[in-house]
Every structure is written in C-alpha cells, then in structure tokens.
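Q: Could you write out the predicted structure for this multi-component system? I'm mainly interested in how the pieces pack against one another.
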Amino acid sequence: MHTSRTVKRRVKKIGLPAGSLVYTGEKKRDGINMMLVDYDASHSEARILKQPEECLAYKLKPSMTWINVDGVHDPVLLEQLGECFGLHRLVTEDLMSIVQRPKCEDYGDYLFVVLKMLAYDERENKIVPEQVSLIIGQHFLLSFQEDVKGDVFHLVRDHLRRGKGKIRKMDTDYLAYALLDVLVDNYFTTLEKLGDRIDRLEEALMMQPDKALIERLYQLKRELLFFHKAVWPLREVISSLIRRESSLIQASTIPYLRDVYDHVVQAVDSVEIYREMLTTMLDLYLSSVSYRTNEIMKVLTIIATIFMPLTFLAGVYGMNFRYMPELEWEYGYLLIWLVMLGLGIIMLTYFKKKKWM
Amino acid sequence: MHTSRTVKRRVKKIGLPAGSLVYTGEKKRDGINMMLVDYDASHSEARILKQPEECLAYKLKPSMTWINVDGVHDPVLLEQLGECFGLHRLVTEDLMSIVQRPKCEDYGDYLFVVLKMLAYDERENKIVPEQVSLIIGQHFLLSFQEDVKGDVFHLVRDHLRRGKGKIRKMDTDYLAYALLDVLVDNYFTTLEKLGDRIDRLEEALMMQPDKALIERLYQLKRELLFFHKAVWPLREVISSLIRRESSLIQASTIPYLRDVYDHVVQAVDSVEIYREMLTTMLDLYLSSVSYRTNEIMKVLTIIATIFMPLTFLAGVYGMNFRYMPELEWEYGYLLIWLVMLGLGIIMLTYFKKKKWM
Amino acid sequence: MHTSRTVKRRVKKIGLPAGSLVYTGEKKRDGINMMLVDYDASHSEARILKQPEECLAYKLKPSMTWINVDGVHDPVLLEQLGECFGLHRLVTEDLMSIVQRPKCEDYGDYLFVVLKMLAYDERENKIVPEQVSLIIGQHFLLSFQEDVKGDVFHLVRDHLRRGKGKIRKMDTDYLAYALLDVLVDNYFTTLEKLGDRIDRLEEALMMQPDKALIERLYQLKRELLFFHKAVWPLREVISSLIRRESSLIQASTIPYLRDVYDHVVQAVDSVEIYREMLTTMLDLYLSSVSYRTNEIMKVLTIIATIFMPLTFLAGVYGMNFRYMPELEWEYGYLLIWLVMLGLGIIMLTYFKKKKWM
Amino acid sequence: MHTSRTVKRRVKKIGLPAGSLVYTGEKKRDGINMMLVDYDASHSEARILKQPEECLAYKLKPSMTWINVDGVHDPVLLEQLGECFGLHRLVTEDLMSIVQRPKCEDYGDYLFVVLKMLAYDERENKIVPEQVSLIIGQHFLLSFQEDVKGDVFHLVRDHLRRGKGKIRKMDTDYLAYALLDVLVDNYFTTLEKLGDRIDRLEEALMMQPDKALIERLYQLKRELLFFHKAVWPLREVISSLIRRESSLIQASTIPYLRDVYDHVVQAVDSVEIYREMLTTMLDLYLSSVSYRTNEIMKVLTIIATIFMPLTFLAGVYGMNFRYMPELEWEYGYLLIWLVMLGLGIIMLTYFKKKKWM
Amino acid sequence: MHTSRTVKRRVKKIGLPAGSLVYTGEKKRDGINMMLVDYDASHSEARILKQPEECLAYKLKPSMTWINVDGVHDPVLLEQLGECFGLHRLVTEDLMSIVQRPKCEDYGDYLFVVLKMLAYDERENKIVPEQVSLIIGQHFLLSFQEDVKGDVFHLVRDHLRRGKGKIRKMDTDYLAYALLDVLVDNYFTTLEKLGDRIDRLEEALMMQPDKALIERLYQLKRELLFFHKAVWPLREVISSLIRRESSLIQASTIPYLRDVYDHVVQAVDSVEIYREMLTTMLDLYLSSVSYRTNEIMKVLTIIATIFMPLTFLAGVYGMNFRYMPELEWEYGYLLIWLVMLGLGIIMLTYFKKKKWM
C-alpha cells in the first residue's frame, strides 16, 4: 500500500539530526549513473561522469550544463555533488529521502523542485511512483531519478543532441520545462491505462454484478486516491514557478510553463472525473444488487404464495379422520383439482396486478 | 467516454518538442474552410479565403477583420496563418490540439481564448464537445472551430451583414463578445435537452423503479459531470476578460461581457441543480426498492406464517399411528377445520395489529 | 420544474443580438401598471402613470421619485421608460428577461439590482418565483415586478403616504432598503411554510414509514435546492451595496442594509438546516425500512424453523411403508406429540437466546 | 424545532417599518430586572435600578458602569435606556428581536455584540437557546439577557464585588471578555451533556441495534446542527474584536480575547467531531442491521434447504399409489431414514464449506 | 473517548477568573522533573533543577538555556518559573490546562507554541495524546510535557551533549525546530501503527465480512478523526513561524522549519488517505453483505421453487379420496416420478438461464 510505504520510509529517519543523508528506499540499487550534457546554441556534448568533481570544469563555462543522476542511494556521491554546486544540506538530504511531497523551494541561487513520476505496472495493476528532483541554477540543471533503469529523459537528450526545437537556444529554465513536460505527459499514459481499466470495469458491472468487480473497483479507487494526492500539489509547484518569484525563470519560458500547468490541471480534472465515476459505479452496483434481491424475493414469494395454500389443501384431504364426507363424493377428486386450479389462477392474477410478474 | 478520449488524445503528442503542430482529433475531416468578414460602421464584406496570405491586405486596413476557420487539422495552413498574425508557436500548437481546457491567455498583442461548444446528440443521447478558439487582436479576430459542418456563427455573420444591432460600430472585442454569447446560448440548448431527459427519468422512477432507469441515470450523471468540467473554467476565463487585464478589451464592452458571465454562472448553477437532483433520485430509487422488498417480504411472511402451522396440523392427522383417538371422533374432522380457521384468524389479527396489512 | 423552466426561457432568446427586448415569461399578462410616488420630508404624492413620459417632470424636481412597474412584458413601454432615465440597453433587456440570477451592477449613474421574490403556493405545494428589479438613481428609484397581481410593496407605499418611520426624510437608497427588506421578509413567510411541511413530514416518518412520504421528501428537497440557489447570490448583492462601492449609497443607510444582510444570511442558514434535516430524514427512513425488513425476516424465520422440522416428522409417520414399528406402539402417537413439543420448545429457547423475540 | 421557531419569530415582525420595537419571544415574562454595578480599582457598588434614568449619574462618572438587564420584552424601558446611552434605533430593535444571528457591529461610540447562550434541558433532552447582547462603550457596558431567571453572570458580579483577579483594574472591554468567557464556558457544559448522550447511544448501538436508538440519534444530530449554526459565527465575531478594528478594545485585552477565541474554536471542533461520530454511528447501525438480516437469512435458508427435500421424500412415500414396490420392502423404512439422514449430512457439510455456519 | 475528555477537562475550569492556575489532567502524577541544559558552540552542561530560581543564573549568561519540565500539575512551581522568565499569566495558565488546541502566540519577548504528542497504545489500540508546550525566547527555551515518564526529547539532549549536527552552533529557534521535528516524526510512528491496523482490517474484510470488523473499523475511524483534528492546526502553527512574524525566528532556521512543515502536511495527507480508505472499506463491506444476502436468497429461492411444487404433487397423491383413477394405474407411481423429475429439470434450466446458478 502506497501510503503505508510512505509512512514507513519516513519512520526510517526518525532520531537522526537534520541534514543526515539517509536513503529511504527499500534496497540498494545496482549503481549510480551520472550523465552530463553540455550545450549551447551551436554545440551539444554528452558524457558519462565517473566522479562528481568532473563537472566543475563545465560549471564555469558559459554554456548550459545538465547533469542527470539515476539512483539516489549513495550519500557520499550526492554529498560531493551537492558541495560542487553549493547546495544546502537539507536539499541533499531531501534528494535521498524519496518520500517527499511535490514542492518547489527557492534557495536564491537555485530552485529545488521535487515531483513524482507515476508509471503504471500492468502486471500488478498498480501505480509505481518514482521521485524526480530538479535543481535549476544559473546555467546548470541537476536532475535526480530514483531508479537506474527506465530513464524517461532520453527524449529530451535526443532533442538536445539533434538540436530539435528551440531547446538549445534557451537557458536551463527551458530545459527544466522540457523535463517537466515529459513527466506530466507520463501522467497521461498512466491515466490512459487507468481509464481503460475503468471502462472495462464499467462494462462488466453493466453485464453482471459480481463480488470480484467490487474488489477491483476498490483497488482502482485507491490507485486514483494515490494519483490525486501525488499530482495535486504539482499545481501549486508550477504555478509558483509561473509567478516568477525567482529570477532564474525567464519571461520567455512562462508561456511554456503555463502550458505544462494546463496539462497538470487537466490531469487532476481527469482523476477527479474518474473518481466520481467510480463512486457512481459503486452506487450503481449497490442499487443493482438490491434490485436483484428484490427480483429473487418476488419469485420466492410467488412460488410460496401459490403452493403453500395448495399443499395445505392436499394435506387436509390426506388426513385419516374416519368421517370426512368429501372423500366419499364421486367427483370429490375432480372438485378439489378445480378448487386448487382456481386458487392458483386467482393468485397469479393478483401478482400480475401488483406488477410482480 | 469523454474523459478517456481526452486522455487518449493527449497521449498522442507525447515525446514531441514544444510547438509541434499535431492534430489530436480522431481522423482527418474533409477540408478546411476559411471565411473572412471585413467590416466597419459603414460597410461589411464577406469572402472565402483560399490562401492564408490573402488576409494580409485586410490586416493592414483600419477596418475590422474577422477570419473564421472551420477545421483545424491542417498544420501547414495554420502555421501560415499564425505567421501572418504573429502568433506564438504554442498558440498555433494549441489551436490544433483539441483537448485544451477552457482558458484565456494574454500574449500582449492579442488574447488567446479557448472554450468548448457542447452540442447534444439526441440519437446517441450524449454530449458532443467541439473546441472553439478565439484570437482577439487589434482590429482583427480569428476564430477556429473543429468541424467544418454545423457552423454556429452564421447568426453573428448575419447580424454583421445586415448591420443589425451595434456590432458594426464596435471593435473586435465586441465581436468576440457576440461569438461568446452564441456559444454560451448553445449551452442552454444542450441543458434544455438534458433537463427534458431528467424530467422523463424522474417521472418513470416515480411510476415504476426499473434497473434500466438506473443505467440511464448513471449515463446522465456522467454527461453532467462532463458538462460541468467543461463549463466551470469558463467562469474564470470571462471573469479575467472583465477585469480588463488587457487593453484590447474596451470599457464599453464590459457590460456585455458581464452579461455573458451571468449566463455562464447560470449554466453552472443549472448543472449543479441537475446533478443534485440525480443524486436525490438515486436515493429515491434505492429507498423505493428497499420499500418494495419490504412489502414483498410481508406478503411472504404472512402466507408462510398462516399456512405452515395449518399444513403441520393437517400433516399430524395424516399420520398412520394405530392409536389416534381424535381420528375416531364423530366430529373430529369438523373440529379440526374450526381449529385451523381459528388459528388463521388469530394470525391475521396479529398482522393487522402490526400494520403489515 | 424550476430549473428546466429557467433553462427553457433562456433558450427563447437564442439568436437575437444583444439588447433585444424580449419578454421571456410564459404568456402575456393582462396589462402594465405604473405607479409613481413623489415624496420628500414634507409631502407625498401618488399617481398612476399612463405614459412613461409623464415621469420626466418629476425626475427634474429635487424631491424623491419612485416608480413601480407591475408587468414587464411590454417592450415599447420599457424602452421609453429606459430612455427617460438613461438606462443602458442591456439593463432594459434584463428587466424583461425574467431568468436573471440575483445580481448588482453599478452603471455609474445608477445601480441595477435584480433579485427574486419567492412566494409559496400552498395548493400546489411549490415555490413560485417572481423577478424583482430595482434601479437606484440619484433621487429616483424604479422597481419592476413580473406580475400585475399581488403587489408586495403596498406596505412601503403606506409608510410613505402616512410618513411612518424615517422613510420620507431619507434618500432613495433608504427606499431601496425598505423594498429589499420587504422582499427578504417574504422569504421567511415562505420558509415558515416549508418548515411546517418538514415538521409534518418528520412526524409522519416517525409514525409509519411510507413510500408516499419519500416522494414528498424528494419534492421538498427540490424546492429547498431551488430556494437556496435563488437566495444564496443575494448575500453577495447586498454585501456589495454595503461595501459602498457606489456613491449612491449613503453612510446612514449602511446599518439598515447590514440589517437586511443579516436576515439574508439567516434565511440561507435556515435553508441549509432544513436541507441537512431532510438528508438525515432520508437516512432515518432507509434505516427504518431495513430494520422493519429485519423484523419481518425474524418472524418468517422463526415460523419456518419451528414448523418445517415438525411438518417433516408428521410427514414421516404419514408414510405408507408396511413395516414401521413405531406406528404399532400403543403410545406412539402420544410420544410423537411430546417429541414435537420438545423440538418446538428447544427452537423457541434458541431464538430467545439469540434475542430474536 | 429550533429553526422553525427562529423563522416564525422573524415572521412576526413582517410589515413594520425599520426601528420598530417588537419583542419576538413567545410570551411576556414576569418583569424586567436591571442591575447596575459601578466599579473601579478601589471600589465596587451594586444596586438594582428602578428607572433607566437612574443610570445617567453613573454614566458621567469616570468609574466603570455595568448594567445588566434581564428580560427584553419591554419596549418603553429599552427605548429609554437606548436614549440614555445614545444607541442607534436599529440596535434597540435588535435587542428585543431575539432571533439575531451572532454578530459584532461597530457603531463608532460603542460595539454591539450579539451571541447565544445554549443551556441544555436534561428533561426534554434539547438545547434551550437564549440571546445575550452586549453594548461595549467608553467606560460602560450594557448586557441584555432574554430571561429573568437563571442569571449566568453572577460569577462575574461576584469577582467584581470581591475584587478577585484583575477585573476591577481594567476597562469595560475586559469586563466584556469576562462575560464572553462565562458564555463560552457554558457551551462546554452543554457539550459535555451532549457528549454523554452520544457515549450512551454508542454503547447501546454496540450492544443491540434498535429502532428507538435511531430516533435518538436523529434528535442528537439535529441538536448538534443547531449548536453548530449558533456557535460557528461566533468565531468571526470574536476574531473581529481581536483585529482591534475598534479603539474600544485595548491591546492588553487582546490575549484574553484570543483565549476565548481558542475556546470557541475548540467548541466548534468538538461539535464537528460529534457530528462525524453520529454519521459514522448511523453507518454502523445500517451495516449492523444488514449483517443481522444476512445472519437470519442464513438460518432460514439452512432450515429450508434441509427440510424441504426431506419433507418431499416423506410426501412421496405417503402417496397412495397401488403399485409402490419400495413400500413392500422389509427394510424400506430403515432405508428411507438412512437416505434422509445422508441427505441432511450432505447439506450441512455444504453449508459448513460455504461458511454459513 | 477523546472528545468527551477534552470537553470534560475544559468544564473543570468553569467559574474561575482568567489566569487561574488549575491542572485539568485526570490525577496528580508522581512529581515534576526539571532538566536544564546550558550550551553554546563550545560546551554543553546538563543538570537537574530542584528550584525554579536556580535557572536565573543561566538566564543572564549569553549561552543558550533549555529547560525541559516533565509534569505540569504543580501550580506553585509553574508560577515561579513563569515569573523568572516574565511569562504572561495566561501562558502559565495554558501550560497547566492540557486541553489546548495547537496554536502559536507571539508575546513579543517570546513565542508560545502548543502542540500535541500522539503516542499509540498498542494494547488498548488507541491514541494517547500528550500536550507539549514550548516557550521560545531570546537565548532560552522552555519545554513542558504532561507526563514524567517517557521523555521523547532524549535524542535532542543526546545530540546537544555530543555536539552532533549544527545544533550547538545555532540559537534556540533551531533547538525549537529540533524539538518540533522529534514530535512530528513521532506522528509517523503512530501513523505506521494505524496503517498496519488498516492493512490487517482490509485483508480480513476481503476474506470474510464480519460484524466485529465493523466495530474495529469504527474505532479506527474515530482514532483518525481525532488524529486529524490534533494535527491539522499544526500546519498553521508552523506556517506562522515560517512567515517570520517574530524576530525570534532567524532566516537560517526557515529552511528547517519548512522541512517540518512538509512533514506535517504529509502526515495530514496520510491521515486523509487513511480516512478515505476506511470510508471505501465500509462501502465495500456493505456491498459485500448485500451481495451475500443476495447469494443466500438465491439458494433459498432455488430450493423452494423446486421442492414446493413437488411436495404439492406428492401431497395430492397422498389424499384419501375414494375415486382417484391415477392411483390405480399400474405405472402411476413411475409416471409421477417422471413428472416430478421433469419439473425439477425445467426449474433448474430456468435458473441456469437466469444465471442464478
């Protein structure tokens, strides 16, 4: 369960002084991958870093420098990198603590942005969150991903290499926009899969209510609740960037950020619509079960109301009293059949009138 | 499903650099229709444009120029048009991406307004959304509709041609108001049809609860949810125009925009009332099914409670024990009938007292 | 249904240019009634106007002029009146369009206030809305009511004639207050009647849940929903008057407006309490039906559980096997009665222990 | 019902000009009690006033003057008092109209504060509201209570007489705080009693769901709804005093008012918790009734499923066909018993497996 | 119950003048523990205080002084301590009154912060609240805990003693941050335990709905409601510290407080997710019970519908009429068996078609 996991990871750090570098993830991943891209309008150079110190040379150059770090479980390396770029100790701590809520903090020289990537695991039918942090500085940008595998930024790197779009002509705030855009686009891929599951569930519920469907509905509700809580604060994050409280965000980037903002709002809207639909589907299910119970009760009542009096009558003439005049009548048997038939027809007419049939 | 569709269209654009012109609709429509109207207080001229460049001549003239484009699936044409009027590349991109949320963006030289037209397809009983975008500039206005067929602006064009009202005497911000007004009026046509369906559903539910009604109710709820999400942001859009953050909106137009604003608020109010009514109707249905189940149970219980003891008694005197003195009594049979009748009457009295009958 | 009606009336005006004078009510009423009252501290003169132009003479005088118009279905007359007092064309349009939401607009020379009168039709058990508009100008006030019959302002006219209170000593903003006060008082008369119906419904539900009650509850909910939507925006209307955004409202009138504001808030509060009570009453009804079903099920189960085994036993000894030793016993019949009695007592004890009886 | 009562009292005043002094309570109380306390740091004098004019002498003195009036049903007396202290006519009107919402109005020379005392009638199990008004002026304070009996301010009077605490050393704003504090403390006494009833109800519901409990729950919900509506606006009232919009409130009194504010917020919090608990208890009740119905159904179904087939079998061998070979078998009777026993055991095993037993 | 307890404690103080020192806890604890830590960058000294006056010497020194008081039930001692540090009498009163809502008050020379520690008692499965108050002054900090046992601040004391982190180099506002951090971390420990219980409950509900589970769910809901109400105001408390309304909070401490703020928001988020999950689980339970009732009804109806007609038939041929031709047929018995079998098969086919089996 997502929430429990967040809470549990947070508990790991209890008792340590502020600024303690502790990785709160579940287990150590294989290694850390540092990829540097140095670019300006005319060139673009990509290389893999072995040591954090290697980036110092690039930092001094007027060209843009983007360092992407895959894996945040190595305190030593992150500390060195943090020192290179003059990061506050709390920022370095937060990079490693993968239970942050999306937020945007202005440290003067740089902006610290935390957000969540939400992939969708189709086998286990659940959302897999991954924390992504961005440090947006003057001519440099650091990005951190939890996991070594599954780099989502390769598209941006590709655009940089091939000089596609205007990305190479702009400052690192535009690069930050490009990365944010990729992450938010990702939400829609996940939303699409959730939407497909909801559609299938809806169809199934219309066909035949079933207990298993309700458990699926419950799980979907939980995933959407989690999605909502992870994306909702992002509105405020991007909106604070747009308000240009920091000089690191240039006026020309604002329209692009506004675009991302629109997408986030749309993602939140979609989640809210999904959630309301699930709530209505639960009501639909409940009323459908009540209706079926009602239908079943009708059948039972009709059967019982018809056959109980008849069985009673048959019972009466099965009694062994010595003096039962009807038994001796020649047409007694025929008569009793007629009486029973008449009774049956009266009952059926009554049920027809009551619209039970 | 609307939401899935929005999400799916959004997914189409993933991985492209910002400003990529991609049509996100379902399939190419037949062609694009560009209609120019040039007017001032004294004249009005309408013509169909073949090439976007033709509008340049009109743009320079002091008279008002309105270009309406039906169909947004041709990137080349939109790009040319965008360049003619100096539009930001993101705006041209948004024109083609028909999954925008209603919004109003101020680009200094022009305002970019996106909103939704919500037609109602009576055969399929669902809302068909169409994106409409307006570019409000100095003496020019561009309007974009998704679909070639079903132009809703013919009324405004008619007023322009015939010089009805004060539309020809005013600037393009008044024209923008006139177009907004047409679109918002459209909401009420759709609301009227939804309202009629709700009325019919209400009547049907009062008559005879039925499972099919609940599915109709569920579909109506979803349509209203969609309507609400599409119209709600329009409040903010028009309200930002009224606040006159842009010099393109003149003081004399404000009362008219305020009028449209009132209509939007009223549309939102109506949707909210409809939604609350549907929720209450679902409760009504549920309580009505419970009540019916209760009624059916009463009948079953009354029948069972009366005939089970009687059948038992008849069964007792159908036993074949050798020594059963009652069987030999002369009036045994009469007596047992009296006992059974008495028992039945006692039961019925009990049920009367309990108000089950 | 109120909402449908509002939507339908709005639809009537689609396609007309702004400022078109169209009456959106259901049918033409009998005639229009114009009543002028001219007053100052020392005198008060009332007369019925035949032509709108007659008011021009009064307008120029320094004394206060109040013109009340009953009936808004005559575009010619309203247009003339509007021109006399220099009203914006949109205002004249809104006067006739009786589907306005309560609002307050400042046109500089005058304030335009729209609100709703909510009478209660006791025969049809529903709220009958009527639109009332006020134009508050320098030394003049125009008031418009939909209906010719049932003038609610006679009390104010009476106070003016008899010089009761301070009304004649004050400007027209105080007169506006007096009219608002009458209208808001009216809400409480309607609320009282709704409250009485809720009380009766509550009592009935406590006595005996019944399906008809639920339909009454549903109708009450809808009326309250409508009431709420009509009164809620009035808070903002009066609050904007109190903030004295217009110089037409004098400081000495503010405490009086504050008083009306308190009443509106109290009316809204009452409606909200009523609505919550109805929601709780629905829950009460549902739980009461469940409880009754439960009770009925207990009776059925007790009867079935006692008599089914007994009937089975009787059936066993009604079998016609040749060799059934028990049948030959001398006390067989007595014995079987004892067994059956014992079984019945055991069952009853079991139900007692389970607290089913 | 509280709300109906409020609405009904409001209706009493309809049609009267502003400033009409009308007592809106249910019936005249016995008499009016005016108690004056004049005090400063060194002395304290208490006397009962016969005439409002008697207070004029005290008003001029620099010492503090507190006049408490029990009973607000005498317009003449209140008018005289209002004139002595220069009260606005609307204030005097509001003093008598005991349906005010809690509010705080600044009339420059004095503050007018209205709030509700909420006693709890343990015999009738409902909240009895009483309106308390305070006029806080320069060196004087007037307090008004609805009822002559049951003065809650005796504690404050006692502190004044005995010079306990710092109350005699401070201005009348501190006295106002002391009175507010007494009233808010009163809320907790009422809350305690409501809390006790909720606790008892909770216990009873856990033991044995019962229909009567639901009616108690419903009544509690209504009382809490009323309490909430009466206390909620008090937050704003006291908060506006704290913001020191009036010079009558001195800086040294602010911490004390902040203290009262905290208590009010806490009272509101408690009411909200109580209300949520009642909502959850209703859900608990409903699910508990469903569960019981389910349990009862299981018993019924088990009994019916076991005995219906058996009774059928017994019925078969009670038939009177001439050629029924089984009846002639020597061990036929034994065999049928074995078959029936086997059938019963199979059924029971099936129910065990389904976890119905 | 928490709320009742809060209300009851508040009631204890009714009738006392402001500033009365009354301990509102349940009973006197064993004794009071005063622990002083005096520290600066170079040294750290800890000692147990016997008398409050002992702290005066430390107060004058430029080094930082932290006094932690365990136990707040001794008015004399708290009064002396309050006088040493010049505390407002209301603050001293609030220290003893352990029913405060979390709040932050600025008294100029010092800040007064109240918050709640929420431990989790695993045996009784409930949250045990404890009030913690902080007085943040120039170079001194006082902290107060309700209980002598279970000091949570030993970690901070340990860091101070060993000079770990930057705590000794900073002012007392950083110390306050460290203490807040410990307390908020504590929330996550409690949340973790609540989360575990929710997980177990969820699993149990999926396996087998049971009435006892619903009571557990109800208790969990109440605990979370309490948790929410206790933590929610803390957001505002810390946020007001961050806004630096007081000069006692230094700029360098802000990032740390922002960190605590993030944690509080995350705790609130987690509680809200937990609460929504419980609500959905209740719905799940209810729909699951309905579904089961439906299943049981099906079995009952199938059995009754099959065997009632058959038993009736058997009853018919058990009648003792003299003239019943079928009884005499040679293959009558065989025939009736075939008829009954056929009837049974028809019924089963019908149920199969209706998907009841």
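A: Regarding packing and overall arrangement: The mean pLDDT of chain A is 86.
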